[in-house]
Amino acid sequence: MPRPLYTPEYQIQTALFTAGGEFRVINDQSEYIGFYHVYPNGSIYTGAQYDAVLSQELQRVPGIAFTDTTQPYYDITGQDYSRHVAPVYYLPEITAEDRRRGSLIRFIVQQRNDHDNITEIDAAQFNGINERNQIGIDGNRYRGQEITWTISGPRDEAQKANIRALMAVESGMPGIRMYLSDPLEFYQ
């Protein structure tokens, strides 16, 4: 997924490091080892920060890699989390049914110990959130939330409805209003 045209620096996770097993370079599918950075829309690029000449887009390798950072978590819990996967960003596609209904359901996950780590996912990933050793997003690390998002009707009413929907889930998912900052997103 392409990086956003503009993202405030404080929303970009910079100077992250992988020792391998987590990412592939999209262009040649080679394993990536080194510094990388992540944008709020879920796009991942090589380098500690973006370089127009050198940065290349990355994609996650399915499954969770055991790294110096994650291994202690798995050791302490005593469970095999290798079948859990990281959430993959999803941009909702408006269907004819959504248009008829005037709303769509958005699925959001947030890492429990990092409130800035919020990702929109699809229904299949959301339904796969689990707390057992099954393939899916780790329900112990991520909390999920469904949001009914208004996409039609009077513009002011749609905006107010989406703001109310965000405020209703803000206490259980701090930072959601910053992540979904445009209450008229997808409005038609």
Structural class designation: alpha+beta
Number of strands: 9
Instruction: Please state the overall shape, judged from the principal axes of the Cα atoms.
Output: globular
Helix content: 10-25%
| Low-pLDDT ranges | none
Strand order of the largest sheet: 1-2-3-4
Integer tally of domains? 2
Average of per-residue pLDDT values = 85
Measure the end-to-end span: 24 Å
**Strand residue content:** 25-35%
- Rg calc: 18 Å
Largest sheet: 4 strands, antiparallel, barrel
Q: What is the N-to-C order of secondary-structure elements (H for helix, E for strand)?
A: EEEEHEHEEHEEHH
Count every helix, treating DSSP H or I runs of 4 or more residues as helices.
5
Topology:
Elements: E1 13-25, E2 31-38, E3 44-46, E4 57-60, H1 71-77, E5 84-85, H2 96-101, E6 103-111, E7 118-121, H3 123-127, E8 136-137, E9 142-150, H4 155-170, H5 176-179
Parallel strand pairs: 5-8
Antiparallel strand pairs: 1-2, 1-4, 2-3, 3-4, 6-7, 6-9
Describe the structure concisely for a colleague.
The chain has five helices and nine strands, in the order ββββαβαββαββαα. It is of the alpha+beta class.
Characteristics of this structure?
188 residues; alpha+beta; 4-stranded antiparallel β-barrel; 3-stranded antiparallel sheet; 5 helices
How would you describe what is shown here?
- By secondary structure, the chain is of the alpha+beta class.
- The protein has two domains: 1-61, no CATH class; 84-179, no CATH class.
- Helix content is 20%, strand content 29%.
- The protein is built from five helices and nine strands.
- It has helices at residues 71-77, 96-101, 123-127, 155-170, 176-179, and strands at residues 13-25, 31-38, 44-46, 57-60, 84-85, 103-111, 118-121, 136-137, 142-150.
- Strands 1-2-3-4 form a four-stranded antiparallel β-barrel.
- A hairpin with a 5-residue loop joins β1 and β2 (31-38).
- The mean pLDDT is 85.
